[in-house]
Design goal:
The chain is built from 13 helices and no strands. It has about 325 residues and is mainly alpha-helical.
């Protein structure tokens, strides 16, 4: 009984950690992207710095992993050793980095448009603006991989698309740029998942190695863009926000959250299941939108609420349909 209660407590703590990190990351990035008091109007630089933080954390985690992997299994805390042992030594080989580069270009597009979307739209509308990822997933699966989808899947996508347009028409502070950035973000998120599957074997199917190479490449790719588009803004902020401890503190915390979301996502999937993870993500998105109405003073509208409900409901139905189809085609275990 005590073991079962301890297990349930662990699952609850993992889900709570996922919710906290995910919602906090969105809200903090919103501040960094749009608050003139705290941040600067340089979304590329803010995104670049978060990639730098991720690279640094990967190097530290790799050192810790190297240290704990050298310990004998019988010594020390086994749970602590098993956690750190998942992180490989952070090494950058140019030949591997070049093979990862196509994914890194997609990755840069994904996080850039994601943050631009967050900069230009209300937080309550954020999930609606980025809701077309499932649509692009199905499109690219057919166009690039030849995978067809069932009628039930297409019906779920229809619900999501309907939610996108209803939510857009009901948004009080509708932003064309924000909506276009959301669509582009959805497109790149879909491409990122496809390219990740193709590139993973290059780094021995190690997710953390790919994270390190991806962010190192992103730091390089962002640099000329920052110099071309945002250098005057950075120069004008040298004696203002760039000298502010609050600004750099928020930047560092956002970078840590960006790395942590990968950890808590893996932990949630391992502690529950892919289906429960998707359901948790849908519920989290609903709470995130509802909280935004109060925290950010976003004015709710009937169409806006219906749009959010359609998007989240359609996404949940899509997950249930896909899981059901997956079980149907799996051989029965005896």
């Amino acid at each position: 009984m005590a073991i079962a209660q301890s297990h349930h407590t662990y699952i609850l703590s993992v889900i709570s950690a996922y919710w906290f990190v995910s919602i906090s990351m969105v809200y903090l990035n919103k501040v960094l992207m749009s608050s003139e008091e705290v941040s600067i109007n340089a979304p590329l630089f803010v995104t670049w710095f978060q990639c730098v933080i991720t690279c640094i954390i990967c190097m530290i985690a790799g050192k810790m992993g190297e240290r704990y992997n050298k310990l004998p299994v019988s010594s020390g805390d086994i749970s602590e050793k098993s956690f750190w042992s998942q992180f490989p030594k952070a090494e950058y080989h140019t030949s591997v980095g070049m093979r990862v580069l196509p994914l890194s270009v997609v990755f840069v597009g994904m996080i850039t448009f994601n943050n631009l979307c967050l900069k230009w739209v209300e937080v309550s509308f954020y999930n609606v603006a980025r809701s077309l990822t499932l649509v692009f997933n199905v499109f690219f699966s057919y166009a690039m991989l030849g995978i067809t989808s069932s009628n039930r899947t297409m019906l779920c996508l229809g619900v999501v698309i309907c939610g996108f347009f209803v939510g857009s028409s009901g948004e009080m502070n509708f932003s064309v740029n924000g909506s276009l950035a959301g669509i582009c973000s959805s497109l790149f998120v879909s491409l990122n998942s496809i390219f990740t599957k193709k590139i993973l074997p290059v780094v021995e199917d190690n997710h953390w190695k790919l994270t390190y190479y991806n962010n190192c490449n992103a730091v390089i790719l962002f640099t000329p863009l920052i110099l071309f588009f945002e250098l005057p803004v950075l120069a004008a902020s040298l004696d203002k926000q760039l000298m502010s401890g609050l600004f750099w503190g928020a930047m560092c915390v956002a970078g840590v959250f960006g790395f942590s979301i990968g950890i808590v996502t893996v932990l949630q999937i391992k502690a529950t299941s892919p289906l429960t993870h998707n359901i948790s993500g849908t519920a989290k998105a609903a709470v995130q939108s509802i909280m935004a109405f109060y925290i950010w003073k976003n004015e709710p509208t009937l169409k806006g609420i219906i749009g959010i409900a359609f998007v989240l409901g359609g996404s949940l139905l899509y997950t249930l349909v896909k899981m059901g189809e997956g079980r149907r085609f799996c051989p029965l275990s005896k």
